[in-house]
Amino acid sequence: MADKAQKMAAIKAEIEALAESPLYEYRTTNGYQVVIGEGSPDAAILFIGEAPGKQEAKSGRPFVGTSGKMLDKLLEHIGLARGDVYITNVVKDRPPENRDPTKEEVELYTPFLTRQIDIIRPKVIATLGRFAMDYVFGLFDMAEQGEKISAMHGQVLKGQAAYGPVAVVPLYHPAVALYNAGQRDTLFEDFEALKAFI
Fold first, then answer.
1. Which terminus of the chain has fewer CB atoms gathered within 10 Å of its CB, N or C?
2. What are the domain boundaries of the chain?
3. Which CATH class is domain 2-197?
């Protein structure tokens, strides 16, 4: 566990010093922090979102705003707390105006996420939102690439990580539950698929 924590700390230090990142200046100018992720490095469940928002970049923690509160409720629904899982994003710095990360940014941050996956070795990767789903499908060269999240959400799919097989469960982003009551029910139902990995 200590070894895993040290490896995570090393990743954070590398990203903090990543001056070649197109987001580095934006972070330093605004006094933002790198958001590497948080939770247990021994977690069976790894959640991956897109990129930090303003609250996350201010605090250095993932999913701390209103969608983070919804994520906490969803975890509670299946009997888990944040400390039981690991939560991170594809991109570790906040893009300006919450825009989608660029291809260049995704490519730059990918090796860090790949290292995190190898450190944690989760049984299941739960993607939060379309962007993260597309990214993980591509990362593991999955047959489901190009599918819409509306067709994939809540399913337990098979991925292949460097350390072996890993389940992939695409989920809607918790933010959708804040402006669409129907999606809220769907999210709670979809989270049930994660119970098998607890």
1. N
2. 2-197
3. alpha beta
